[in-house]
Structure formats: C-alpha cells, structure tokens
Amino acid sequence: MVNVIIEVSKYLMILLIAVYTYLNFSYFRYHGEQGQRRVCRRQNIAMFLMHFVAYLILYLKSEDERVVLFYLAQVVFLGAYIGLYQVFYRNLTRILVNNMCMLLCVGWIVMTRLSLDKALRQFMIVAVAALVTWILPFIMDRVWQLSRIAWVYGLLGLALLVAVWMVGNNSYGAQLSIRVGGFSLQPSEFVKISFVFFVATMFYRSVDFKSVAMTTLMAAAHVLVLVLSKDLGSALIFFVAYLSMLFVATSNWLYLLAGIFSGCGASVLAYGLFAHVRTRVAAWRNPWADIDNRGYQITQSLFAIGTGGWFGMGLFQGMPYKIPVVEKDFVFAAISEELGGIFAVCVLLICLGCFLQFMMIAARMQALFYKLIAFGLGMEYVIQVFLAVGGAIKFIPSTGVTLPFVSYGGSSVLSTFIMFGVVQGLYILKKNDEEDYEEREA
User: Fold this and answer.
1) Of 124, 397, 145, nearest in space to 278 by CA
2) CA atoms within 13 A on the CB side of 238
C-alpha cells in the first residue's frame, strides 16, 4: 500500500510544483497589487500541499516520529516567516519571499531523505539566518552611509580570502573554510557580497579610467587568491559578476571584450599550472575513462539523473547516497533521481524567477549604487545556480558550488539570506520613495 501511495505522490508533487512554477511567471502579468497577492496566495497553497505530501511519504517510509515533529516545526517557521514579513514590511515583493520558502522546502525534503540529522541542523541554520537577516530591509531603507566605505568592503574581503588561503581547512583539494569557535565558515560566501558592495561603491563614485583600473586590480586580487586556494567556483562567480557590473556601469564594449579575452587566457594558464584543474577537466571530458576514481562522482550523478527520468522513482526509491557529497555539490542529481526531471526543471525555473526579480528591481533603481548592488547580487546568484546545475549534468566541469537554499551548508544559506534581504530592502526602498512622491504630488 505504501508503494502505491509513493507512486501516486510523485505525480502529485510534480503537479503541485508545476502549478507553483506557472504562477511564478504568471505573476509578472499583473501590475495591480490585488492580482499579485492572489497569485502569491495560490502559490502558498501549492507549496504547503507539496510539502505535506512529501513529508507524509518520508514518515511512512522511515516510521520515525521525529519526521512528524520536524514537519510541524517547518510549517510553523514558514507560516511565521511569510506572515511576519508581510506585517513588518508592507511594501515587500511577496514573490521573492515565496520563492525563498519553496526552495527551502525542496532542500528540507531532499535533506530529510538523505540524512535527518543533517536536515535538522540545516533547519536550525535557516532559522538563525532568517532571524539575523530580518533587519536587512530596514537597514537598506535607512543607512545611506553604505556608499561611503568602499575600501572597507574591498580590503576586509580580501583579507578574509587571504586568511583562508594561508590557514584554511582543506576540503577535496581546495582551501574553502576556517574554523571559528567550533563552527566551520566559508568566508568566500560572504566576501562575494562585500565584493559587490565594493564594486558598486567604486563605480558609483566614478567610472573614469583611473577608478576602473583601481577597481579591476582589487577584483583581480580577489580572483587570484581564490584560484590559489583552488576555490575555482567562487573565482568564476567573482570574475563574471565583476565583468557584468563593469559593463553595466560603463557601457564600454572594449572593457567587456578585454575582460572576456583575459578570462579565457587565465583559464588556459590555470589549466597548465594547476594539476587539480586538469583533473577536473579530464573528469568532465570523459568520466567513463576512469569511472572508479576521478570520474566516479559525475558518472553516478548521470546514472541518477538517467534513472529518474522525467517523473522520478519516488522518495526512498532511488540511491542518491551513492553520489559523493550529494547533499552539497550534486543535490540537483538527487532531486532528479527521486522527484523527477520535470520537478528538477521546475526548481531551476523557480531559481530563474528569483533572478528575474533581481534584474527587475535593478532596472527600477535610479541611483547607480543601488542598481549595481541588485544587478551584481543577481548575477552572482544566477552564476552559482548555473555552476551547481551545470556540474551535476556534465554541462561544465564540476566546481564544487552549492545550489542556493537547496544544498546543505550553513555559510551558503546565511549568505543567500543576506543577498535576498539586501535586494528585498532595495525593492522596499523604491516602493516607499514612489509612495512618498505620489503623496507629495497629491
């Protein structure tokens, strides 16, 4: 009987997330607040129903009462987070809050399937991150001095990266984290935010050649330290985000082309200098040649995706645990295997919806400083999603990057909450200014 319920539930979950995804894009059709609220309420219904169906299966298969308590804790958190955000921030963009919660739900479902203990730890991290970042929209609406301390952002971020390079913990051949008071932190997750603020502040002040040259040198220093730490995924995120922000600020095609050629040259140089780069490229080009060693992770990921097909095998019906580090770098493969390719594509489209919201908010901002912050954070977000999914499906070499809000990892969750909180604050700032202007005109 349980197997029948599992088989039916996977189609129901696909239907519910497909409805949610459809509503995510139909939201953009409405310009009136009433229509947008109606779409968001329907999204919440689809999300909570999908969440319930998934945890019903998780409980039936595990028969662990902790799963029920964990589910109830999540429902309380989600309801409180959505409700209180709307109470305290009247002019928020609700679609962005909904997408955050949906991605968190997917992450908790997959994590509970893989390891309940890790899922519980992830939930605690999310709760703390939500509490800590709750004030960010309020800060963004009131602190104008953020644009006055450019070199604080740049030098502090660079110092953190250098510290990781010198004394960081080695993880799968790369120096990614440092231990502080018994906790492991990945500073690059937070430096990518300070990096965007640094670049935005510098270009807000001036986009003459001297300013561009100084900013480029600091950006190159960030990327170089990350390459030396063998954190190639973060290095690529920093590089593409900077190049994009440079082009938006200057509209200079020469800068863009020079950056692209420099990046290509640096990639070739890195391939020749670093053995770990050659290993990853070789594993990407032909993982079947060394399937028991360097190609094992990617081949297991491809097996999982292929086995799941479009509709998946159902929760607890696959073997995602055979993929090394599946809860972090290759969580997309775990989703594809048991929840199906359609479900995984919907998750990807929800991430795309978040990116579109970032870009729309950036387009609405008149001040270059705020525009560049929203644009830079949006670029970093979408590049990270691209690297995480691209590595799992063998579209690009694996870079060890997590899928925001879905993968396991405290630093990733907290930094993503900060990114979304900052952009939410910019949206609220713009809406408040528009209301003040309308009141003055009236």
Assistant:
1) 397
2) 33
- 3 state SS of 180: strand
Classified as helix, coil or strand, 171 is strand
Strand order in the sheet with 174-180: 169-171, 174-180, 183-185
Helix (H) or strand (E) holding 179: strand 174-180
Phi-psi category of residue 230: left, alpha or beta, with phi > 0 → left and psi -120 to 50 → alpha: left
Phi, psi of 198 (to 5 degrees): -60, -50
Give residue 310's Cα distance to chain centre.
Answer: 24
Across 179-216, b (16+ Cβ under 10 Å) vs e yields eeeeeebbbbbbbbbbbbbbbbbbbbeebeeebbeebb
Yes or no: say if 184 and 169 are a contact pair by the CB < 8 Å rule: yes
Low-confidence ranges of the chain (pLDDT < 70): 1-2, 141-145, 168-177, 180-183, 434-442
Pairing of strands 174-180, 183-185: antiparallel
DSSP string, 67-125: HHHHHHHHHHHHHHHHHHHHHH-TT--HHHHHHHHHHHHHHHHHHHHH-HHHHHHHHHH
Yes or no: say if 394 and 103 are a contact pair by the CB < 8 Å rule: no
- Residues with Cβ < 8 Å from 128, sequence gap 6 or more? 414
Q: Give residue 340's Cα distance to chain centre.
A: 21
Q: Summarize pLDDT for 175-185 with one digit per residue, the tens.
A: 566 776 666 77
Q: Which helix (H) or strand (E) holds 338?
A: helix 331-339
